[in-house]
Design a protein that fits this description.
Layout lengths: L4 E2 L9 E2 H29 L2 H8 L1 E2 L1 H8 L3 H14 L3 E3 L4 E3 L2 H7 L9 H12 L1 H10 L10 H23 L6 H7 L2 E5 L5 H9 L4 E6 L2 H14 L4 E5 L10 E7 L8 H11 E12 L11 H19 L13 H10 L4 E7 L3 E7 L1
Parallel strand pairs: 6-7, 6-9, 7-8, 9-10
Antiparallel strand pairs: 1-2, 3-5, 4-5, 10-12, 11-12
Length: 364
């Protein structure tokens, strides 16, 4: 039997498959709810609501309002929306709200390896940037990294830092050939495209005998990185404004690029400069979003997130620079290895991976 159909508005138009239509509309309702509640996540983080609720363990809206000093009526509406999203838990008998351990790990603990609130700040930025990205669509001129909304820079740092904290020194570096022992003994390290310095500072803290240099072409990010380094009191790290194709120094024992090679206008040129800057026995670690080599392999929830950010951030950023290769956030291992090979690296392998990242190891 054929599936039920409905006639769309417009005489003579083909009939719609009602089951497929309802499925699509159901997804859109979910997506609209997620989109509007993203702003509520930022509110909850900025106003300290998640942290307060985690501290109280269980509370009515009145009790939580008293603790936070926030308006109870608006807070009650926020709590209702968050409960409907499954982001917090509601007890209908006692009319109380709470966070499970899992919800607290995602929303209330900024140091949790599964903290996700930073991602919503980045989402906020892409909405702010829609007009300039639309103009880039018309002209093909791209959008320079520094011209994106400020929420993007802090959001990227907050989104990626928990994953780096959880994996960088415990599993990614140990998966490389001999790098951990060299870092323990003491070598010089270049962290290119370091942003606010999260990756650089994590490594500098873990390996005090090594010297770390963080480079980024965005002056405001380097200023933030210097501030974070000073706050942590680390003496073995320095930050400076430089591009991936002109950062200073030679003989680095280790070089890294975290989630940034695909953003570069000339990734081959950038990797070539890294290759020339390394010690002959040095190692280049490239952390990139996990992706298959074809679009069909990436049509999944993680690919959806990365393609979305790539459309609004990564691809326009690359197009705004020289060459404008525009690899995109879902370039895939095959394409990335081709870039590294063209740049002069003779050995490239996937050292390890997570559900979100692939870690490539390259040698001159």
């Amino acid at each position: 039997m054929n599936q039920a159909t409905v006639d769309p508005v417009g005489a003579g138009a083909p009939s719609l498959n009602s089951e497929a239509l309802q499925q699509l509309l159901g997804q859109l309702v979910t997506d609209v709810g997620a989109a509007v509640n993203g702003a509520l996540v930022i509110l909850g983080d900025r106003l300290g609501i998640y942290a307060a609720l985690a501290d109280m363990r269980r509370a009515t809206s009145e009790q939580l309002a008293a603790k936070t000093g926030l308006d109870e009526r608006q807070l009650r509406e926020w709590l209702s929306a968050q409960a409907a999203s499954g982001y917090i838990t509601y007890d209908g008998v006692e009319a109380t709200f709470s966070l499970t351990r899992e919800q607290a790990a995602v929303f209330a603990d900024p140091n949790s390896p599964v903290a996700m609130t930073g991602g919503f700040y980045s989402v906020s930025a892409v909405y702010h940037d829609e007009p300039v990205v639309a103009e880039s669509f018309r002209t093909g001129s791209g959008v320079p990294w520094g011209e994106h909304h400020d929420c993007l820079f802090c959001g990227v740092e907050r989104f990626f830092r928990p994953g780096y904290e959880a994996n960088l020194c415990s599993s990614w570096i140990p998966a490389l050939e001999g790098v951990k022992d060299k870092l323990i003994s003491g070598i010089t390290v270049a962290d290119i495209g370091c942003g606010h310095g999260a990756s650089t500072l994590i490594m500098a803290k873990a390996f005090p005998n090594s010297k770390f240099y963080g480079f980024d072409n965005h002056p405001a990010s380097i200023a933030a990185a210097k501030r974070h380094g000073k706050e942590q009191g680390l003496s073995n790290v320095e930050f400076d404004v430089a591009t991936a194709k002109d950062f200073p120094g030679r003989g680095y024992g280790f070089a890294t690029i975290f989630d940034a090679l695909h953003d570069m206008g000339d990734p081959v040129g950038a990797a070539s400069h890294v290759q020339r800057s390394l010690d002959p026995k040095g190692t280049f670690m490239i952390v990139e979003p996990l992706a298959g080599d074809s679009l069909a392999e990436n049509l999944n929830p993680i690919g959806r997130v990365y393609y979305g950010f790539s459309t609004m951030v990564c691809t326009p950023t690359s197009l705004s620079q020289e060459v404008g290769l525009a690899l995109g956030a879902q370039a895939g291992e095959k394409r990335l290895k081709a870039v590294l090979s063209e740049a002069g690296f003779t050995r490239v392998r996937r050292a390890t991976e997570t559900p979100f990242n692939m870690i490539l190891e390259a040698h001159p």
